[in-house]
């Protein structure tokens, strides 16, 4: 994922499904207090009568029972459990749309193994809330703007729910697993990493990498289009590593991280063997994480030495350590209130820094790759839009296409930025993020989500709402440039690409700047052809969404405009 959807997969994984106390709910009815209590409290008297009947059946001492009696007892217990499962499901479901009965034991498990956008859409369109269950996990899916935002902004009722594999892979003490006030305070300390000044430094690093990758793509002699999804992932990976850790990581190690990191992505599939035994995907992912952590910790240690010597900030780790050193001086200031003192960046250990960098890589990798792949695809399929992007580029860069990109210049690229925003709206990389209820959650006047349920805010309908985005299936960058009275600007609540509330994406400015900068550089350096196949518009749901044909492109060099050409003429070449 890996994106944040990696933290929060599109549906519960087997590892989430079969671990911990909840598994006792399914298999250990006789010993699990929560399960039997809830059953006995059932409004339907059948639950109580069923439990009494079972108790009377198992009462006779086993040594006196015939094999037939034992068999009958076992079958009765199983049948009662299956009936109870249905009763519990129906009770939790109440009036909401969703299957009337749940498939015994597994629920929608098979569907969750093969996620399908069309099936998801059916659920989202069936009502603002709909339900399903996978194994014993009761799931409420929210599809309206109001319900989705309510979940994301009700931290007293629901918190992000990550698969168990995620915890063992990115370490249980990673900050992303914090909630409430400790989470809020930790996040405040990270805001320094994405200031305009910091972003400016990152831009310099990014451009060098884009140019190198584009040159490699252009050097490909094969005249036919080929899948670029993985190559774009590599571009993102190297950009992230260099932005986060600069030259503290050698070229060889950067390559190694890119290769090994794939093991982490693979381990976040929806279904995975839950115990990290040698040979399993989770085991391989943990080994990869150990290697990656070592490099990030070493980067933090090297940066501490350089920053203490007053050297230049060259990457995110440097920016962080510099902020830490500056805050040390600030903290000495006797005029500072206790609150400000608490929020100021405290000292972070090498391991803490490495864990945050790991969380960024983990949260951004797949989402950024999905966003980049669709951005290239969307503009290639709509030459008029790409022409307008180029026109803006030629106009703003005023004849110097090699001039370094700056945050100020990116700010001026109104059309290119709108194009990025619109591409993210049309194909949001993360379509849903699972949360878990901490207590009964009165989500609206008519329905309360039970405690311990998975509650999934999903973004697709908000981002394709015709009220906010007329002609929602068309790519219309102009809708973001129509002023404050436009439907898009009047409905900013619908813009949920990066979530909302205390866990909203911390990297969203950086992410949009990266995508704008890539499109800006690519549009003047290359022409590209997208081979449209029957699968180009079909969506593969991994942790994020991708075109099923893995985006087939052919890149060729774009001629430099001759002296005296107007931006319009240059763009039309
Ligand atoms: C197009 C790219 C990206 C998309 C679509 C995306 C989307 C998201 C979404 C939907 C969430 C969950 C929000 C919620 O629960 O309300 C999230 C969280 C997060 N994202 Fe992103 N993201 C992207 C890029 C990035 C980047 C580049 C970084 C880091 C540099 C990043 C770091 C994070 C982190 C750390 C969180 C968890 C924040 C928390 O729990 O406080 N993301 N992202």
TrEMBL record:
E.C. designation(s): 1.14.19.41
Keywords noted in UniProt: Heme, Iron, Metal-binding, Monooxygenase, Oxidoreductase
Binding site for heme: 505
InterPro entries the record matches: Cyt_P450, Cyt_P450_CS, Cyt_P450_E_grp-IV, Cyt_P450_sf
Keyword Oxidoreductase set for record: yes
Gene Ontology BP, a term: sterol metabolic process
Gene Ontology MF: a single term: monooxygenase activity
Key word Heme present: yes
CDD domains in the record: CYP61_CYP710
Transmembrane segment boundaries: none
Pfam families per UniProt: p450 (PF00067)
Listed cofactors: heme
Family recorded in the similarity comment: Belongs to the cytochrome P450 family.
Protein name: sterol 22-desaturase
Organism of derivation: Meira miltonrushii
